[in-house]
Amino acid sequence: MTNITLDPIHHVLLITPTELPEADEFLFWAKLFLHQPDIAIVEELEGADRHQTRFSYENSTFNINFEHYTDSIWIAPEGAGSQEQLINLSKYLLTSFQ
Q: 94: which residues sit within 8 A by CB, 6+ positions away?
């Protein structure tokens, strides 16, 4: 089971899957994780130590990140409007995974 935790201080959603994806599999993992009716993938970026998938939800843009060195996955809002939508995204994702 994947845990999704809202961090209100840093304005991110912390994602803790049962099993972390390998670095070279993250973009595929992110596509599966974000495969929801109200989410559209905008862009995929692959870096040396961080991968990122940008997506939209309810006319707001977010990014899901995977950092190799810390094995961390988190979702961050892009802009103030998206930050306000973060709690709704959290609820949507939690409902989707029940």
A: 4
